[in-house]
Amino acid sequence: MVSPQPVKVFESHTKLDSAFCDVFDRACARVGINAFRSEYENIEPPAWRTIRKELKQSKALFLLVGKALVREQNVHNAQWEYTQNWIAYEIGVANALKIDTWVVCDNLKINFPVPYCNNYFPYGISSENNFKALVTVLEKYSQGAEYKFLPKYKVTCPNKECTLSYNLIAKVKKENTITCPCC
After folding, report:
1. Which stretches of the chain are DSSP H helices?
2. In a 10 Å sphere around its CB, with 0-12 CB exposed, 13-18 middle and 19+ buried, how is residue 112 labelled?
3. Residue-wise pLDDT tens digits, 65-123
4. What whole-number distance in Å separates Cα of residue 49 and Cα of residue 34?
5. Whole-model pTM?
6. Which DSSP category does 120 fall into?
7. pLDDT tens profile 137-146
8. Ramachandran angles phi, psi of 73, nearest 5°
């Protein structure tokens, strides 16, 4: 009898945020999910083929928005433009494949649009409670779940220029506000 392949997810990130990505990897390992993280993989040219192949095998794409990613966007670093192009490609492919697309922020406000996001985790994953919430999400993926639009968590951006709908997974305290991942 052939044992089933472990569930796979795709990490969209910058390697400058390696500590944040490591926390995500620990959550995946805890539930037996394989995470594709490009800097640890052997990618043969052209890279876009490997990325597309890995996304086809993934249940979800997780865009990990860490402090370095936001900082590079703020200072308009040329390296950011390279990273931004890959992130846009990965998100576009995930959307075309109709797989769940997550934005997970490291306790900061996202400062660039992610138009195809359908799941938003705006408050980091390093705290014990948020880490547990992420582990729960990943466990559900390992059991076959998807997070398309869940009535309990669905939010629609009130900006008439945007109106993106997404699942807001982390609870938002009344004194906090969130930034829409698209606008």
Report:
1. 18-31, 47-56, 67-75, 78-97, 128-142
2. middle
3. 999 988 888 887 777 778 888 999 999 999 999 999 999 999 888 888 998 999 999 88
4. 19
5. 0.91
6. E
7. 999 999 988 8
8. -65, -45
